[in-house]
Amino acid sequence: MKLKAIAILLNAVLLAAFIVIFLLPLLLIGVDYFSLFWGRNWPIAVVFFAALAGVNAYFLLNWRLFSALEKEDWPATAAILEGRIFRRGFATAGAVRMLLTTYLVGSHTESVLALEAYLRKRRPGLLGRFSLQFGIPHLLSP
User: Fold this and answer.
1) Could you identify which of 12, 26, 61, 96 might form a hypothetical disulfide with 34, taking C-beta atoms 3.0 to 4.6 angstroms apart as the criterion?
2) Where on the phi/psi map is residue 141: left (φ > 0), alpha (ψ -120 to 50), or beta?
3) Four-point Cα dihedral 125, 128, 129, 130, nearest 10
């Protein structure tokens, strides 16, 4: 619910900014200046709507992950991130960090070892970045 409210609030603020910037000249100065204003500044409006569409696309593409995080459903969060990293091969630093945190919250140290083995083959540059988190299972093993 919090992320839904953030998405709605962000859209409302961006649309209000658009109205203030692009439609206020119509009310204050008149139609003649407004047509001149739009004739010169329509590319900015296109960029604005593209940015608004990009923000909404980001929220829609990550909606399942955001919902699982908001519910604190760690198994579902781990499943979504495992799908991104292991199946699709999108092992970004942010996704790896979030998956490591999810594993550690759920005390799945064996999954941390599996992620470490996967990254050792596919993205060895990320191992040094998360060496502390990858070291935890080794410290806890007998």
Assistant:
1) 26
2) beta
3) 120
What is the secondary structure of 62-122 as a DSSP string?
THHHHHHHHTT-HHHHHHHHHIIIIIS----HHHHHHHHHHHHHTT-HHHHHHHHHHHHHH
Q: State pTM to two decimals.
A: 0.76
Query: In whole angstroms, what is the distance from residue 103 CA to residue 120 CA?
Result: 18
Token pair belonging to 40: 């010169």
62 phi, psi to nearest 5 deg: -105, 15
Q: Could you read off the pLDDT of 113-142 as tens digits, one per residue? A: 999 999 999 999 888 899 889 988 888 877
Measured CA to CA, the distance from residue 114 to residue 10 in angstroms comes to 38
- In whole numbers, what is the pLDDT of the chain averaged over residues? 88
The sign of the dihedral angle between the CA atoms of 126, 132, 137, 138 is positive
Q: CA nearest 22: which of 52, 2, 65? A: 52
Contact 65, 81 (CB under 8 A): yes
